[in-house]
Amino acid sequence: MKRFFFTFCVLQVAFSMTLRADLLNDLLFDKKYSPTYLSQSYIDSLLNSVQTQRYELKYKNRQQQYRYSFWATYYLRDHKRNTDILLCDTLIRDAQMSSDGRYIAYGKGQDLYLYKVDFKTEIAVTQRSRKDVFNGISDWLYEEEFGITRLFAFSPDNQQLAFIRLDETGVPSFAWQTFLSEDDLPSYPQTHSLRYPRSGDKNAKASVYVYDIHDKKLVRMSLPEDDEQYIPRIHWIVTEQGNQLMVQTLNRDQTRMTIYACNPKSSVCRRFYEEQSDRYFMDYSLWDQWQWLDDGRVVIVSEKDGWRRLYLCNSQGAIIRPLSPERMDITGVYGVEPKSGCVYYQAAPVPTERAVYQSVLKTGIATRLTQYAGCSSATFSRDLKQCVLRQESDLLPPTYTLCKVEKNQLKTVRSLENNAVLAAKWKALNLPQKQFIHIPTERGDSLDAWILIPANASATDPRPVVMFQYSGPASQRVINRWSHRIGYVLADMGYVVVNADPRGTDCRGREWRNQTYLNLGQKEAEDHLSVARYMQTLPYVKSDRIAMVGWSYGGYQTIRTMCEQPADQPLICCGIAIAPVTDWRLYDTGYTERYMRRPMVNEDGYKQADLTAMADRLTGRLLLVHGMADDNVHAQNTWLFTEALINAGKQFDMQVYPDDNHNLRKGNHYKHLHNRILSFLKQYLYD
User: Fold this and answer.
1) How many CB atoms lie within 10 A of CB 520?
2) Is there a single domain that holds both residue 364 and residue 250?
3) How far apart are CA 565 and CA 297, in angstroms?
4) 622 Cβ partners below 8 Å, 6+ apart?
5) Residues 579, 591: one domain?
6) Is the distance from CB of 112 to CB of 135 less than 8 angstroms?
7) Tens digits of residue pLDDT in 575-613
C-alpha cells in the first residue's frame, strides 16, 4: 500500500508537469506575465519640463563588447533640418553630449575624441595610444567590477573634459575559443583574448587627466603615485574657486577609500575625505550617492558606525551630524532640496523591505514617507517637488503613482500605472505564495528567507525541497518585491522551494556583511546546512530529498555546501552549479581581492576556499553547467574541478553551452538550461 501511494505521488507530479508545462515558458520566456514598466525617459519627461534640443545623439549597428559596453555607429539627429549627421565612419564607444549641446566626447580605438557640433569637426584628445592603454573608456575589469564604461566627464561649464587613463601593460591575457560558424559550414575554432588580471596579478595603472577644450591643453592631475590603486570614479563640482574635480581612489586591497579635490588647471590635489579599516572592505559604490550642495557642504553615505548611513559634512569633509536612523542601511539617495533643507533617500527598515525617507539637514530628524509592506522607490524631479513613486511586493506587480512632495509626506496626484490586469491574471493562476520567514541557526541567530509550499503538501504527502541561493558578499535575494522565476514553476509542480540569505549578505549592517571577509564560502555553507536541517523538521518535507541550486557565486556555494556536509548523514542529495568559481585564484582582482585580499597576503583563506582541494569530499549528485565562452567566470574553473572529481573517483553530470558567456542567453540556451534543471531535479528528487 505504501509503495502504491508513493507511485501515485510520482505519477501525480509527472501529470502536473505535463499539465502546467506552459507555465515555465509563460513566467520565464514569454511576456505574458510581465508587468508594464514605465521607462525612465517617460518618467523624466513627466517630472521635468524638457526643452527640445536641436540635436539628438543616436546610434545603430550596435556590437556588444562586454557585459555593458558596446561599439556602434553614432550620428546626430538634426531636428531643425530633419537630417542625420554621421559622427565618425568607424565604430565608436560611450558617446556623450555636453550639457550645452556643443560637444560630443567618445572613445575610438584606444583614444578619446571630441566632436565640435557647431563646426562638424573631430579633435583627438589623445592620439595613437598603445594597444593596452585606454583613454576615457573602461577595460574589462573596471566595467565588470566597478559597473562603469564611460570614464570621462565634462565640467559644469563644458570647457574642460576630465578622463581616467588605464594602462594595461603587463596585465596577463586570458584566451578562449569559439567553435560555431555563422554559415553552418565547418570551420577552425576562433581564438579570442582580453586582459584579465586574476587575483594577485598586475592591475592596470590608473591616472587622471583634464583636457582644456579652448586651450587644447592636457594636464595630468597630481595624485599620490600608486601604481596599484583603483580610480573608479571622477565627478565635477562647482566651488567659489571655480570648477573642481573630485577623484575617488581605492588602494589595491580596497580597505582605504580616499576622495581628492583637484584643481583642473594647476593639477594640485588635496585629500578631501578618507575612510579605511583593517577589518572591512570599502564599498566604492557608496560615493555614487553623495550629494554636493551649493554652499560647499556634502551629504555622504558611510558605514563608519556599522551601518550604511547618511551624514552631513562641511566643505572640508568633516562630519557635522548623522542624517538617517540608526541600525538601518541606506540603499539609495535621491537628492537634496535646498529650500526646505531636506534630503530624500531609500532605506531598508527591515532587510526584506524598502521605504522612502526624508531627513532635515539642520536637525537630522528623519521621517518615513511610505508605509507600504514591500518595496517602495521614487524618481524625483530636478527640483524635488514631485516624484513618481513605484511600489511592488511579491504579491502585487509594480504600481506607479505621481506624487506631490509636501512637508513630511508624499501626496498622490494621480495613478500612472497599476498593472491591475496582470495582478488579476497572476492571482488567477492560483500559485503558492511566498512566505517571508526567519530560519533559526545553531548559533542562536536567524537567516532571512522565503519559502514556497505546494498547496497539497502535508505530513501524509511530503514533498522534496529545492534550495535556491546566490550568497555572494553584500548581495541579497530575499526581498519582498515582484520577482517571479523558476521557483514558482517548481512549487506548482510539487516541490517545496526555499531561498535564504546567509552571513555576508546585505542590509543587516556592516558586521553581518563582513563576516565572510577573508574566508569566502565556509560560513555561508554552514548557514545553508542550517537551512537544510530546518527544512527537515517540517512535516510536509521529504527529509532525504533536498536539492541546492546556484549560479556564479551561487554555483560555488552549491558545491562548497555539498563538500562541507557530513558524508555519513548528507543533507543535500543533489545540486546544480551553474558557471561556478571553483578556485578564487582564477577570478579577477577587483572582486576577489575586495573580499579576500591577495593570495600572497591571505594564503590560508585561498586554500580553504579552493573547491578542487575538497573534490574528494563531495557528497550527492552534482550537475555542472558552464558556457564555453564565459569571459567572466572562465570555463577553466569547471574543467579543473571536473578533473579533481575524476581523480577522486566521483561521478557527476555536465551540461556545456558552446560559444556562450556567463549569462547563457545565446539562442535557445537559456530555455534549454531551465528544462535541463527540471529534468535533473525530477530524476534525483523523485525517481
Assistant:
1) 25
2) no
3) 53
4) 558, 559, 562, 574, 575, 576, 577, 645, 652, 653
5) yes
6) yes
7) 999 999 999 999 999 999 999 999 999 999 999 999 999
